[in-house]
From TrEMBL:
Keywords: Oxidoreductase. It comes from the Bacteria. PANTHER family: PHOSPHATIDYLINOSITOL-GLYCAN BIOSYNTHESIS CLASS F PROTEIN, PHOSPHATIDYLINOSITOL-GLYCAN BIOSYNTHESIS CLASS F PROTEIN-RELATED. InterPro entries: NAD(P)-bd_dom_sf, SDR_fam. Belongs to the short-chain dehydrogenases/reductases (SDR) family. This is Short-chain dehydrogenase. Coiled coil: none annotated. It comes from Mycobacterium cookii. Pfam families: adh_short (PF00106). Gene3D superfamilies: NAD(P)-binding Rossmann-like Domain. One of its GO terms (molecular function) is oxidoreductase activity.
């Protein structure tokens, strides 16, 4: 199969891309930093290509989407965590803009060329979050990078719900507590936690964190299934029931409408 992995040049995305390429799939690593992607691709076996995609810039998202003739599986993996209040090229708060709105736009733009399924990488942080639909981009609230991250992942889960309702084959995967460099741009106490605890116990490696996404590529589980490790943190992926707020049909519809307005993208009819 032909598979696109966003953020496939590091961490869970890199481990996912490497495993799928080794299994005989044709993989495209779509990411912002090409030299890093080229180094990652060179270490992989199989059919691996590299393409530029900056989810923080909708013009880049559109350019990348225009270059794709078709794809079997889109894995929306790229993400950021722990950023101070910063904004994307289109004025979105960075967690919401990169983790969710960029992927919303990409998925919609590729909608008529996705032959099999969409896989979205989420996080247990959604469970502690409340989506402020009237202020997705933090113009009227006191900023919290933790809340911003959690809300972006809750938005992804609601987006997945909407895709399923549109009869799109879509799955959610959670890597759990994983030792990666997703916090590389974080500020405050995050770097200390990363360097003193997160790099070791109890986090597992990127290969373990990639298991859910790899499984989702070929699974025959019911559409919309959420695969997460035990307690959404450790162990092998298993079918997990999302909390009610991640399955709220009314909120999912509202979020879709707002996302279309913000990005100018919608699912093709």
């Amino acid at each position: 199969m032909e598979i696109i992995v966003t953020g496939g040049n590091s961490g869970v995305g890199e481990a996912t891309a490497a495993a799928l390429a080794a299994d005989g799939h044709s993989v495209v690593i779509a990411c912002r930093t090409i030299p890093k992607a080229e180094r990652a691709a060179a270490a992989m076996s199989g059919d691996v290509a590299v393409a530029h995609l900056d989810l923080a810039d909708l013009s880049s998202v559109r350019k990348f989407a225009d270059s794709v003739k078709s794809v079997d599986v889109l894995i929306n993996n790229a993400g950021v965590l722990g950023l101070p209040l910063t904004r994307t090229a289109d004025g979105f708060e960075s967690h919401m803009g990169i983790n969710y709105l960029g992927h919303f736009a990409l998925t919609c733009l590729l909608g008529d060329r996705i032959r099999n399924r969409v896989i979205s990488v989420v996080s247990a942080a959604y469970a502690m979050s409340h989506l402020h639909i009237d202020d997705l981009n933090w113009h009227h609230r006191t900023y919290s990078k933790w809340a911003a991250y959690g809300e972006s992942k809750l938005a992804v889960m609601l987006f997945n719900h909407s895709l399923v309702r549109r009869s799109v084959r879509a799955y959610m995967t959670d890597p759990g507590a994983t030792n990666t460099d997703i916090t590389r741009d974080a500020t405050g106490v995050v770097p200390w936690i990363r360097d003193h605890t997160f790099r070791g116990w109890p986090a597992h490696g990127a290969q373990a964190g990639a298991r859910a996404s790899i499984q989702a590529v070929t699974t025959e589980l019911p559409n919309g299934t959420y695969l997460a490790p035990r307690f959404s943190q450790w162990g092998k992926p298993k079918v997990t029931t999302p909390r009610k707020k991640a399955r709220d049909a009314a909120m999912a519809r509202r979020l879709w409408d707002v996302s279309v307005e913000l990005t100018g993208c919608d699912w093709p009819v």
